[in-house]
Amino acid sequence: MNAGAITNAMTIDVEDYFQVSAFAPYIRRDEWDTRECRVERNVERVLALLEAHRVHATFFTLGWIAERHPQLVRRIVDAGHELASHGYGHQRVSELGREAFAADVLGARRLLEDISGTAVIGYRAPSFSIGSGNLWAFDALAAAGYRYSSSVYPIRHDHYGMPDSPRFAYTLPGGLVEVPVSTVRLLDRNLPASGGGWFRLLPYAVTRWAIGRVNTRERQPAVFYFHPWEIDADQPRVRGIDAKTRFRHYVNIGRVEGRLRRLLADFRWGRMDRIFLPQVQAQAPAAAARAAAPGAAAPRREPAQAQAQAS
Ligand SMILES: [Zn+2]
Questions:
Q1: Which protein residues have their CB within 5 A of the ion that is ligand 1?
Q2: How does residue 18 score in pLDDT terms, banded at 50, 70 and 90?
Q3: By C-alpha distance, which of 66, 57, 114, 117 is closest to 87?
Q4: How far is the CA of 210 from the centre of ligand 1 (A)?
């Protein structure tokens, strides 16, 4: 039961089914307001699920959703969960560019703070879209007042990923902490172990094995994520989409809630800030010392090195 001693991070990306990046070619954002909105009832179900297991989680919430459902944001905070930012309108970092990204993340943080009355210090990029081509995003997040990000997926994937980046929480030169979502290291490759489509596609036992391995072999907390629409088997089907997108979005969607119940029971779970910020604070003096020592900052600059190799 060693794994039981480690608290893992449970995270929910609060967006509606029509806002996922894979649907962007099919649903224009000016159509969003015309779609049937399901996020409120789905988040209510997620809140009930977490309450039944006495779990507090982190909700990376879109500004677009918060603006339209302020009471939902307050429900999340009142239930003891951490409110964090998923940006305003679910545009990938590379799609926004530097200036628009800086405005997006600052605006989303202020909006969420105004609605909730609580500090918002965490951010997750839509579609894990921080990678070797846009590491400037970390500076923009620090400048906008964020203290941590969970925006890198250290795997190879056709839509996202930075396979050479560190697999566990690390402090960037500007002080921001990046907490990558979890992977398992197998046969010299990082394999996804943290939710999303993989959680629906593969048997539950694979996720249980992977998180157990991160906890017992590497003695690290895992970071798991899912979306409210993933427990909504009755969501309106989006028509005219390609077969791969259809498969990825709908595969095993009726099984997710049952799997989540098992996952919540099989491991200990908590909020991102409570799991990673004490560690951040403990790291801070050492990080400051390394920054002060000439030439000693290299271990903290792995993403920058990855960028140099990639370019
Ligand atoms: Zn998202």
A1: 13, 15, 126
A2: confident
A3: 66
A4: 23
